[in-house]
Design a protein that fits this description.
Length: 134
């Protein structure tokens, strides 16, 4: 079995400033039984973290969501407080929100990607994107 994110040596020191006020698009979700494109047929989930008020928001690939996070050094915990309620049939939203609730650490890897981890195991990988200006 291979890891999503390479070896531990590929994980760079955390750069807190790189974490905030940017859009991170999901490109890998661990423990998924379905193909990634089947889970997210219309759009990939994304998340944005605001440093000023410890709030996060994003989209699950189907619905908008948001809440607060608690972060200290490389430890992070997300509290999802709201989601919109459109019907989503691919199962991707449920898998994304469940995994996000299990995250307790983060790292920025040597390629500048955000890794969300459970203990030392990378469970989600995000790439930095430029959101649509529309």
């Amino acid at each position: 079995m291979t890891s999503c994110c390479g070896s531990k040596s590929a994980i760079a020191k955390s750069s807190e400033s790189a974490l905030y006020d940017t859009t991170w698009e999901l490109e890998y979700l661990s423990e998924s039984q379905k193909d990634f494109k089947e889970m997210y047929p219309d759009r990939n989930p994304f998340i944005q973290l605001k440093k000023a008020n410890s709030q996060f928001s994003g989209n699950t690939g189907c619905n908008d969501f948001g809440g607060t996070y608690h972060q200290k050094v490389n430890a992070v915990r997300f509290e999802i407080q709201r989601t919109t309620m459109a019907y989503c049939e691919s199962g991707g939203e449920e898998a994304f929100l469940k995994m996000l609730s299990q995250i307790n650490r983060f790292a920025i890897d040597n390629d500048g990607k955000l890794l969300l981890l459970t203990d030392d195991v990378p469970m989600m990988r995000f790439k930095k994107i430029n959101p649509d200006k529309s």
